[in-house]
Amino acid sequence: SKSPLSSHFCVLSLPPVPADVPPADQEKLFIQKLRQCCVLFDFISDPLSDLKWKEVKRAAISEMVEYITHNRNVITEPIYPEVVHMFAVNMFRTLPPSSNPTGAEFDPEEDEPTLEAAWPHLQLVYEFFLRFLESPDFQPNVAKKYIDQKFVMQLLDLFDSEDPRERDFLKTTLHRIYGKFLGLRAYIRKHINNIFYRFIYETEHHNGIAELLEILGSIINGFALPLKEEHKIFLLKVLLPLHKVKSLSVYHPQLAYCVVQFLEKDSTLTEPTVMALLKYWPKTHSPKEVMFLNELEEILDVIEPSEFVKVMEPLFRQLAKCVSSPHFQRDAVILNNEYIMSLISDNAAKILPIMFPSLYRNSKTHWNKTIHGLIYNALKLFMEMNQKLFDDCTQQFRAEKSKEKAKWKEREEAWLKIENLAKSNPQVSTINHQQHPQRNHNAPPPPSRTAELWSSTSTVNNAPPSRPPFILLTLWRWTVPRDHEQRSGAEPHATDCR
Description:
By secondary structure, the protein is mainly α. It has helices at 23-36, 51-70, 79-91, 119-134, 140-143, 149-157, 164-180, 185-203, 209-221, 229-239, 252-265, 270-279, 286-302, 305-323, 329-334, 338-346, 348-365, 369-385, 387-424, 426-435, 449-460, 470-488.
């Protein structure tokens, strides 16, 4: 950032609050210190420049933090525009381009984040502004003239910062503003929606999705009942489509929390939520599938029995597919959840026939001993629920396996008949005799028709021998079968016209 330094930049020590210092003088000194902290320094191209003045600014902000924390009645009306201006000058900036805009998704355990060079000053400015918002002297009615929609929009744009320390301060700051400024709440939610829409349908890249979802988790928790229609639309049109983005792992815990909060508020949203999860269910990405299973377990932990009945069949058809996988340990853990098993027990007649084949098959073939134990426990619970139904499912499974074996045997016999018919066809022996006459096996093999054609072409053109051109190979495919069929009087075969 640029450095508009002035020659009279000097340390201004705020006096204490004794009675002999008039409040007007304190206010004047406070405003002077706020204005001197609007000077920006270069931390990127020349980190070692202006070290003395950088330290002066750092000490000044730190002193102001202590001043408004330990003193009362110091946030007077003239202070509000100065504080907001100082914060805006230091914070609202164009963020540098992403260090990895189109590469692999960010892994917080493996990848190092890009840290903000000016953080020694930015951190103190954030701390000062938070103390300002949290002060008992803070009056939202006065501040709303300066903390407006434009301010909030610029604040939300900073959530794309790559520095996790800054995003953490932004999260707390936005939460305080949402709590104190009722008139800005709808605008904040709307702008967050727009960030999510752009992330889902355009860029698929934003650094602050997890932090924004964490804020929304608290906001959703405070929604009044019954839920407004706009909140339901937010769940169905914004939160649920976030499941299809490839970088889901970065923000999935916060997203799952928001979804579960909605279902606890309004159980009628369970069916569209579960159906949306099944719609976005990953087909080939196992780690992402584990995330979906974790979220599904959280949903089933809070689901109402009346809502469970509506989604159980498509839901357990998907779980049966997961059980069929050789890596389905997470799914087996779900089946050992006490509340989920009680829901299954109440609807065993529908669920057991769906789940039994996959469980029984894996109990015989799975490679992992731990999984064998989990499957055994699940099958044992199913058997205890309804012994007769369990026996019926076992017999039906064995009958289907027998039918499957019979079909395979029929297919093998059919193919064997086709092979025998082909071998007994007199034309096959004639063709084999014409194409492969008896010869001395020690003699070199005769040149093929294609090789002869290519050899003659190379000789005529005085060209060195190389691979035969594609056109000759194509002509060979078309002419040789037709010549043979005309000689033998056979009808052209469909496969020769390719």
